[in-house]
Each structure stands twice: as C-alpha cells, then as structure tokens.
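Holo prediction. Input below; ligand is zinc ion.
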Amino acid sequence: MRLLVGAHLGHTVRYTPIVPLLLLGVMILSMSGSAAVAYTASDSSIEPASGQPVDYVYHNYTNVRDILYTVQAQHPSIANVYDIGDSWEKTNGTADRDILAIKISDNVASEEDEPETLIMALHHAREWPTTEIALALIENLTDGYGSNKTVSWLVDNRETWIIPVVNPDGLDFALSSDDNWRKNRHYFPASDSYGVDLNRNYNGSENGDPLGAWGGAGTSDDPSSDVYCGEYAFSEPETQAVRDLIKARDFQIGIDFHTYGEWVMWPWGYTTDLAEDNDDLVRIGYEFAALNGYLPAQSVVMYATTGDSIDWMYGGADIYSYCIEVGTDKDNFHPSLESDVVRIIGENVPVALLAIDLAGDRSERAFDISHIPTSSRDYSSSGFEITADISADRGIDTSALVVMYGVDGGGWQSVSMLQTGVNDTYAGTTPAQSAGSSVDYYIVARDLGGVELMAPQRAPYDVYTFTVNAVDGPPVADAGLPVSTAIGGTVVFDGSGSVDDGAIASYVWKFDYDGSEVTLTGVSPSFRFEIAGFYVITLNVTDSSGNWDTDTVSVTVEPPAIPEFGQVLVPVATVLMVFLLAGLRGRSKKR
Ligand SMILES: [Zn+2]
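Structure of the complex:
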C-alpha cells in the first residue's frame, strides 16, 4: 500500500529476503537457530526516485491512526489495532490522541504460544523517521504475508507488536509548531513549562542498583529541561501505556527507535557494568549492526542515562532491548529529503524483521535438525520412514517431535517421531501412498526450553517433497505354443506373449540338444533341428530391475518317413500300366 510510505514515494519499501536454505548438491540442512543469514544488509530495490530531490512528507498522528485502521481493515486475520492508552493532552481533555499499538500475527485475535517482539518509535517528538520505519515494517509484514516466504513464516510463528507513535501529542506539536520539540506536552502551571522526556520517565533499571534508579544520571528535575524525567517514574500516561502493554505480554526482544547518530545500543545505559546477559545482548546487537551498518555499543557509551526505555525493558521486564539511533549527523533528527528517509527505512526494516525472528530463540542455544531428503521413494506398503538427527543443548521435547505431511497438495497431517536405537536419530513413518503420489513434508521439533525449530526452516513455506515410484513387478514369461516339425525343419520360437509392468530386458531360451546345452536369445530366435526327438525349451525373461520368470515350450521333431504298403502299391501299378500301354502302341504300328 503506497499510502504507508508517503505520497511522494513512487514505490514501496521492501527488504531483501532470503538466502535459499537448500544448499546446492547435497541438500543437507543444518540449522543452529541463528537467523543471521536470512536477512541481507541492503535492498537494492530501495532507491530514491530519479530527478529532482523530493521533500518527504512525514505522517502526523491522524495519518498514522488512519493507516493503522486501514491495515486492520485490509488484513483482519493478521492485524489488530489496540488503543493501549491516552496521550497526556487526551487525559487533560485538550486533544483526542491515543497510544495505538498494532499486533501482527496469524490468528491475530487469539493468544497463541508464539515468541513476542515489541517495536517502538517516536518517544521523542522530533524523531519523525522512526515512525516511518514502523509504518514500513507494518506494510512489509501485512502486504508481504502470503507472497514473501520469510514474512509469511514470521507472521505465522511470531506475535509482533508495533507502537508507531509513543508520543502523539509531541509528534503533532513538532510537525506543526516546533520541529525541535522532544518531550510530551504535559503542562506544568507552576513553572509554566511543557513536557516530560518520556525516555527518562521509565522506572530505571529496577535491578536494585540505586545508580540505575529513575531520576539519576542523564536526567533533570527541572520541567523546562529537555531531559526532565517527570515527577516520578511512570508519571506520564504515555509511558504507563507502554509499561502496561509490556507487563501484559511476554516480549523477548524490544527495539526502541530514535534519531540520530547511527548507533545500535543495549543495556545498561546507567552504568558501564555489563548486563547479566551481556553476551547475548552483544551478539544480537552485532547482528543488527551488520544489517544497518551502525555502531554497536552498550548504551552508556553514548552517554549515561537513567529511566530510559531499554534499561527498564531489560531490568524490569527481562526483554533483550535495543535503542537504535537511526540517521547520520547530517540527517539530524529528521532529514527533509525523501531519499534520506527511504535510505533510513531500508537500513532498519531488516533489523526489525531479524529481531522478530530472533525472538524465537534469543539465546541461540544450539539446536539442530539434520535431515537428508530424497526426491523419490519406492512404493512401500509399510509407508515411508523419515529420519533426522535432532540435537539440542536444552534437550529435545520428544513428545512434540512430528513429521507433518501432505499428499498431492492435500491438507497437513502429522505423525510422531520416535527415538531410534541410535543417539539423536528420530524417525516417523508416513502412511503408504500410491505410485505417482507427491508427498510434501517437514519436521517440527521443540527443545525443552520451548524453542521450536523446523526443517526446512521456513516450513511449510518451504517443504521437502518426494514422489512415490511405481514398483517394478516381475515379468510373466510366455514361450508360445508347442511345435512339431520334421527333421531338417526350422522352428521359429515366439516369446512375444511375455509381459512386464516395465520393459523386458532379455529373453534367453535353453534346451539340451545332441548332448549339450543350446542357448538362444531374443524374442523370436530360430533353430534348425536335424535330430528327431521331443525337446523341452525353457524361456527365461528378465526385466530391467532383474525380476524374472520362466515358461517352457515343446518341440517334436519327426523321425524319417517309412512308407506303408498301400502307399507304395499305387505308384508301382502306375509304372506298370505305362509300360503296358507303350507296348500296346508299338505293336499296332507294326501292323
Ligand atoms: Zn530519542
């Protein structure tokens, strides 16, 4: 939907999927749960329109609200908009802006046991490109569903929540009145000043370290300050809305987009001490940075903060949380040109998609399915065994191991996989199918940490397929009808009545003759019999699979003829008569 990326964009923004999972040649699939290969760093399709530079038209709150409800109307099965709270001005009765979140997942109205991700944008009023990233992400996830394998798989197997505008009053104020505005629009009559820095209003690190508490480093208690942290933690309706959503969910990974500086940052922001999960936070941070080209670092490296979203998400809600500062110094808080905004979107939509993917196994504990598919299987009345080597650091949930299979494009059914006698090898047997059937299948495994893994990884958008070969049954030999002949007669044998479900590869005829064995080949060989007798000839036909059958045919060769008396008498009498007649004619001439 073009409306999502602005009236001046002549194209939609797409990230580039997808490295094919099938290795050339031997199709051995081995996955470790790492999805880093699934997203590429840049999208060559994201290019600014040619010609004169065009100013980008940023979306205000009303635009965003309309887009979200349009997406929900167009994709009701996978997109649901939630009003998760009011802006400060709405609570004060001076405006009508809500904090809106959109959930994107299959069966969106249901609570499914799927890994959850939170993507947030625009805590700070002037950081408009962040909302554009969120809208482009929403567009990718919804319009790409059904056409893009990776997107479709992510929607089916993840629950993603996106808040495109955490600070709607601030956004509209910055767009209309003061493009350098940062905070929300909370009015403080005592000081006649406006605004709390929403990204200083969370409840600190909540890890018991007083240095990490709300209102510490990087904040001010002066309402006129740009980093005013509010009267108390979560004093603002905007941060309360985010907090309440997070508390009601089970987010594994969270990204909070800001501008600018091209950083990927993780907790802590209040201290140089490393977070307990620092190894994981660093690893994922580097994966994000590899996609958008930004500088990965612990948050405190940029400057110390307390009460920001990522310290609280991590310390307060066990979310692997990232603050991503998009855009260069030249872009500043909001570049004016479309080409710059499009570039920033293209850098960061893949990061968000990767985050959604990694939410399925953010610790990336080793978990492998190794399976060697074949493109055809011989018909078997006992079905088709599917085997795979499956291993997981946390152990395999053997009750959840299944082969999903479908025949000739029919619906999916499942069979359990059980451990074989061999370590790590599991097998399931799909039912017998008739010759010529096409069987699609994939393997689903779950480890004891609840992480699900499939082979192929994006099943059922990718599947293994085999066709069922017809079985090559044995031939039926037919050596033809019995034959009689005289000595010296030539007999032509006839094996053409032999049949096979495939092709007969050889005809071999054998019989004993004059004290030795004669071997003839071919469908209709011939043989001249010089010796009288009764012969039994054995025909052996063999098909291309080596299946064979035999048949016999008899040949009777007559001995020499011995004339009987009656047969001899007539010719003798004839000869005598000839002589007699000749004698009579001779006499009459002399007269
Ligand atoms: Zn910011």
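Residues 124 and 182 are 5 Å apart (CA to CA). That is the main takeaway for now.
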